[in-house]
Write a structure and sequence with these properties.
The radius of gyration is 18 Å and the shape is rod-shaped. The protein has one domain. It is built from 2 helices and no strands.
Length: about 80
């Protein structure tokens, strides 16, 4: 069937990460970060989600590129 769950999960995390990075960049230096010691957690976790989503997309597309019907033991 060829459905690899890594591709839609990667796309979802990548999109959410891009939104969070964008929000973190637009609100950088805002007073709402005073409670956390001026640490922009939105920007940090957005970057983490972008890296995770990109990794999942890469692994999903790399897994699809393998030729079907290969020998089970290619050692």
């Amino acid at each position: 069937m060829g459905l690899d769950i890594r591709t839609p999960i990667g796309a979802m995390f990548l999109a959410l990460g891009v939104l969070l990075v964008g929000y973190g960049m637009m609100t950088n230096g805002a007073e709402m970060y005073a409670r956390s010691g001026n640490y922009n957690i939105n920007l940090t976790w957005g970057a983490v989600l972008v890296v995770f989503g990109a990794t999942m997309l890469f692994l999903g597309r790399r897994g699809r590129a393998k030729p079907p019907g290969g020998r089970p033991s290619d050692r």
